[in-house]
Structures are given as C-alpha cells and as structure tokens.
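Lab manual, section 2.4: Encoding a predicted structure.

Procedure: take the sequence of the chain (213 residues), apply the prediction step described in section 2.3, and record the output as structure tokens. A sample record is shown.
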Amino acid sequence: MANFNRKLWAEGKGYSAPLPQKEELDGLDRYAALLDVGCGPGRLLLHLRQMGFRNLFGVDFVFSPLEKVKFARVVQGKAEKLPFRGNCFEGAFLVGVLSSLIGEREREEVFRESFRILKGGGRLFISAFAVNRFYREKYEEGRKEFGRYGVFRSSHGGIFRHVEKKELEGLLKGAGFKILKMERKPFITMHGNRAEGFVVLALKDKGKIGPLS
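Recorded output:
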C-alpha cells in the first residue's frame, strides 16, 4: 500500500464501504469465530459487536489503530498471508480491502487465504468499490500512469484500484468459493465522493476443508 494509505490507517480513518446487514449473517451463532481482514481502527468489528457477536478477530498491517479495539482479538499481519490456522473461522469479511490491492497476484492471494482460514460452510462477505462512471477521468489518468484502467491516484496521493464484476467473480471462483449473492449498489467514499460497488456473499462448501496451515 502507498504511504498515504498507511497514514489513513494510523489516523484511524477507514473505508466507507457498506457493512454486512442482519440478513447476510443469519444463521451465524453469536459465538461464531468471525475475522475482519483489513480491519483498520475497528469500524466493522464494532458493528459486529453491536449486532451481538462475541468471538471477534481482526487483522491489519498497521497495528497502532488496532490498539483501540478492546473487545476483539486483533493482530498485525497481511491479508495476503493471514497469521491464522486453516479451517478455523465461520465467517470472514473483506470490507473496502480490494481498493488497496493493486497487483493481480496479491488479490488472488487474499482470496486464497480467505478460503483457507474458513471452515467448510463458512461465509465470506465482501464490500468492494467497482469500476464506475464517476471515476472515468481518474481511470484515464491512471491508465497513462499505471498502464491499467481502474487504477487511479486520489487527490490526496493514495493509489487505489476498483474492481470489475468479471474479475471479482473470477477471484472468488478461482479460490474455490460459491457465490450466493452479488449486488451492485451506490457507494460513498471516505472523502464523500459518489461511487458504485459490489456487495457479495460467498460460501466455502462444507466438503472443501483445505490445508490447516
């Protein structure tokens, strides 16, 4: 991630991507082990706590904001190499994370890792900014600078990448997930700009156990 992204995390700011709602978490026990990947200062973890969940974990590459989260077990680590055993969580969450993953390989690794740490029957919730019409000029500028449409430099200096539907479907299926729901919705960025994004619920089939480490 760019230094600007690190600064955002250190200041306790987070992505404004939508959080999971009750219907997307129905059937999960209040003591189910849930992991927020890229948790930042704990916006999603607090949301889950307020929904009644009590066995919460978070991981992020910048540790200082995590120290504010006292009601969950949080560790420092990368989404591409999660510091947890395989098959140990009932639910995992990628909220706003994809925007900061620029390379193809790191995106693939994040989905493989999310699959690995989930138990059979575990759910993955994703909230991700989509390539959208509001950012066309930024994408064209980004194509000149980075050689790829959908990557852009924000006015504050951060480098981000939005996702296409076909790419997101490929990342999920390539990692072994079954897509239960994928909806495109209006999003608002952390700077108050209009955007669009995907809200996704995916499943790790019960028969797919995978490695323990």
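Check your result against the sample. The first helix runs from residue 3 to 10.
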